[in-house]
Amino acid sequence: MIKFDNTFTTLPSFLFEQVSPTPLTKPKLIHVSSHQNDIGLGLSSIDLLNWLNGNEAIPGEQRISTRYAGHQFGVWAGQLGDGRAISLGEILNHGERFEIQTKGSGLTPFSRMGDGKAVIRSSVREYLCSEAMFGLNIPTSRVLALITGEDPVYRESVERSALVARVFPTNLRFGHFEMCYHFNKKDELKSLSEYLRKYFFNDMSLEEMLEEIVARSAKLMAKWQDVGFCHGVMNTDNMSVLGLTIDYGPFGFLEDTNLSHICNHSDHQGRYAYNQQPSVGMWNLERFLVCFIELVSKDFLQRTLSSYPVIFEKEYTSLCRKKLGLMKEEADDFKLFISALKMLDQLSIDYTFFWRELSNFRQGDRESLNGIWNYYGNRQELIDWLGDYSSRLTLESISSEDRSIQMKKNNPKYILRNYIAQEIIDDVEKGSSEKLQNWLEVLYRPFDEHRNFESYSKPTPSELKNFVVSCSS
Ligand code: AMP
Ligand code: MG
């Protein structure tokens, strides 16, 4: 028996609507993630399928979609809301709160021009990347299950329906607060702030909570940059107030390094390019913080916002040192890292492959980098950079073996390359869950060796590069 502890529905009714799901036709439970154990649902596969798909209700559930607004691509977009996501309720297990939400469950009062549906392609991508980010130790929403259906869904072509059940402590986004502020719902804004404080921030003061949200967001951006993750649609409605990565759409990891990489084909201006993400994070926080202008002082808000670049830089510098395997702190370490990025960009070297291979580097031993030479040849820019790196390493007291071990804990061997995701999507389209399951094992432990997957740790084969991903999902 699932014990719900629904709290969102105690909030003012402006913030949500009760909804009924539209079940997928001929639903098939493709996968249930290991996260189910944390939630402690204890449902059989068939009961889980029937519940998530909306064929059966469970006593105590409350299906709702929430009202939020947002700035999309830098422009105020007004009301948006959960257009195809339905929360089934919140579950408390061992003191942890899990909100279960299905994405692709049909029309809601917030669907606007959309159909409320999701396709297999985007659902598999969200499923994989949520768990991949978890494996990379990056805060993220998680997933519970993946279901496919037989309904036609009209995108650029006709695709098949699917839904992802995703899980987070709360679905609250910057956009929920923007909704209250821009529509002058002062009481609702207050209730929502109180609610967030009470349930998700240990009852700290509003000021402390806002500082914490800024800090978490800054650290999240540093972590994204560190692994080369590009979100693709950093609109304010896609920013979690808990500092989680949410709403996986046209995301991508850097493959051949291009610092101005745009992973979303629909982002014509490159607003959300890889190297723009940290500053967009700050822009988004400004849109968020302004909502509290009548609850805390303007001075405080300005001060809190200006803590963002400081926290970001501190976190990012620390992650960069780890990537380089530096234990000591030297003033020019960040410069050394940036010069590596520029060199990788200039030579279009695979980001993940480079850092992992660099973990094998031994000073004065050219062969230790055979992996890189074999792929990229003798490039002067690379040789010059390695010279600087070698000089810096002379200040370290750790052995190259120990440095290698440390670096391999910080430089993943495997990331979710777009072509890998596509191989898995093709398999799921055929009704199989084999590749998905096998890959999850790799993605949960991306820093380890996985012998059967060795070839996937290499730079993306040229015929599989330049994969185009759009907003359509
Ligand atoms: P996204 O860019 O995916 O974050 O979506 C932006 C807004 O559009 C959100 O309010 C979504 O709920 C809504 N939306 C996206 N796709 C659909 C769809 N197929 N049907 C209804 N609403 C959608
Ligand atoms: Mg969204």
Q: What's the order of the H and E elements?
A: EEHHEEEEEEHEEHHHEEHHHHHHHHH
Question: Outline, from the CA principal axes?
Answer: globular
Please give the number of β-strands.
12
Considering DSSP H and I runs of 4 or more, what fraction of the residues is helical? 40-55%
Spans of at least 5 consecutive residues whose pLDDT stays below 50 are none
Structural class of the helix and strand makeup?
A: alpha+beta
User: Average pLDDT, to the nearest integer?
Assistant: 97
Distance separating the two termini: 34 Å
Number of helices: 15
Strand content is: 5-15%
Report on the biggest sheet.
6 strands, antiparallel
Cofactors and ligands: adenosine monophosphate, magnesium ion
Radius of gyration: 23 Å
Feature tags:
473 residues, six-stranded antiparallel β-sheet, binds magnesium ion, alpha+beta
Describe this structure in words.
- This protein is of the alpha+beta class and 473 residues long.
- Among the domains are: 165 residues, no CATH class; 83 residues, no CATH class.
- Helix content is 41%, strand content 14%.
- A hairpin with a 3-residue loop joins strand 9 and strand 10.
- Helix 4 crosses helix 7, helix 6 runs antiparallel to helix 7 and helix 6 runs parallel beside helix 8.
- The longest helix has 27 residues.
- The chain is globular, with a radius of gyration of 23 Å.
- Adenosine monophosphate (AMP) binds next to loops.
Q: SSE layout and pairings?
A:
Elements: E1 16-18, E2 28-32, H1 36-39, H2 45-53, E3 64-66, E4 69-72, E5 75-79, E6 85-93, E7 96-103, E8 118-119, H3 120-135, E9 142-154, E10 158-168, H4 174-182, H5 186-200, H6 206-227, E11 229-230, E12 252-253, H7 277-289, H8 298-324, H9 333-347, H10 351-358, H11 370-376, H12 380-393, H13 400-410, H14 418-429, H15 434-444
Antiparallel strand pairs: 1-3, 2-9, 4-5, 6-7, 7-10, 8-10, 9-10, 11-12
Helix pairs in contact: 3-14, 3-15, 4-7, 6-7, 6-8, 7-8, 9-12, 14-15
This protein binds adenosine monophosphate and magnesium ion (MG).
